[in-house]
Design a protein that fits this description.
The protein has 335 residues and is mainly alpha-helical. The chain has 14 helices and three strands. Among the domains are: 132 residues, Alpha Horseshoe (Serine Threonine Protein Phosphatase 5, Tetratricopeptide repeat); 93 residues, no CATH class. It has a three-stranded antiparallel β-sheet. It is elongated. This is Tetratricopeptide repeat protein.
Length: 335
């Protein structure tokens, strides 16, 4: 019987079998890749069609960009120019066309990321979340996509989902202690929990995010509570506007200059604006303070206080800038 099966022990036969298997694997991989790319293209086409109908770019220009031999990288750069100038609708339309022309996974990942940022800045939170999830499908460890996904959840007040994303970032070694503290404090602030219990739990996050003390001060004022019952007193730089506009007085040496400027004590004042306000009031001039809010990161200016910058998304970057102005007299305003 060994005579009939001797060819199975022949090295040449073994090589033939090995190369046959490798050939079958290669053929299978090729067809699998073809079908996979086709399926991925259909998926992207469906995704693009889902949002393209609401595009603000004229159809003739869309057709022109699709027909012209322009690669996805050039379209991505063009869309970026529109996004930086604030024309997000045009940027979105071009990103969608670039997505259809993208070939490699890295190209698609980058375009999905930029498209999601454009939707986020344009105020389309739910769409931005969908786009960032597509980017994460391609690269689950994309830190930029995860960070912006968490920001989208935060803006929609989906705090639990935002915390899940922050946990994923923390697992990758990203320092998100401040973001976690802020999100948990924000979740508590918006909850229906009893006031005392809410404040006690929020205070636990003050070490990781200093502006939690301002959030607690806001709660005390909104609920008509005595601000001097606050255990963790906020820094004056973080709450100058609130304390100036609030009738209550917060005890502490750090706040004496502010209340001296308001004429409530005789403290020596070193701050220029507060001293100017006191001098104006001492001379019976109608003066008050107005406040501007500037991001210390991107230098953007806003009329209202922010915990996270609307432009650069930096957390805790708000600088409160006081300005002495003439106090308006409502009685002298003509209607």
């Amino acid at each position: 019987m060994d005579f009939f099966f001797i060819e199975y022990r022949d090295p040449i036969f073994g090589l033939i079998v090995l190369f046959s298997v490798l050939l079958l694997v290669a053929i299978f991989s090729y067809f699998w890749g073809v079908f996979s790319l086709k399926d991925q293209k259909n998926s992207i086409d469906k995704f693009v069609n889902k949002f393209q109908s609401q595009s603000n770019l004229d159809q003739k220009y869309q057709d022109m960009l699709i027909r012209l031999d322009i690669d996805s990288g050039s379209l991505n750069a063009l869309a970026g120019i529109f996004a930086r100038s604030g024309e997000f609708n045009k940027a979105i339309a071009i990103y969608l066309i670039a997505l259809q022309k993208a070939i490699t996974k890295s190209q698609k990942e980058l375009i999905f990321l930029n498209l999601g940022k454009a939707y986020l800045k344009a105020g389309f939170m739910q769409r931005s979340i969908e786009v960032f999830l597509e980017a994460i499908k391609i690269s689950p460890k994309n830190i930029d996509a995860l960070s912006h996904l968490g920001l989208g959840f935060e803006k929609l007040r989906l705090h639990d989902k935002s915390l899940e994303v922050l946990d994923a970032l923390q697992e990758q070694g990203v320092d998100v202690a401040q973001e976690i503290a802020y999100t948990k404090a924000l979740k508590l602030k918006n909850s229906q929990m009893e006031f005392e219990q809410k404040v006690a739990k929020m205070a636990k996050f003050a070490n990781d995010f200093k502006l939690v003390s301002r959030m607690i001060l806001e709660l005390f004022i909104i609920n008509g509570k005595d601000v001097n019952l606050i255990n963790i007193k906020p820094d004056l730089a973080h709450c100058l506007d609130i304390l100036y506009l609030n009738d209550g007085v917060l005890d502490g040496d750090e706040y004496k200059e502010l209340y001296g400027a308001k004429g409530l004590n005789n403290a020596q004042i070193t701050d220029f604006n507060l001293n100017l306000l006191k001098v104006a009031r001492d001379n019976n001039l109608n003066a008050t303070l107005s406040f501007n809010y500037i991001c210390k990161e991107c230098k953007g200016s806003y009329p209202l206080f922010f915990y996270r910058c609307n432009h650069c998304a930096r957390l805790g970057s708000c600088a409160i800038i006081p300005n002495v102005i003439k106090e308006s007299d409502e009685n002298s305003i003509s209607f």
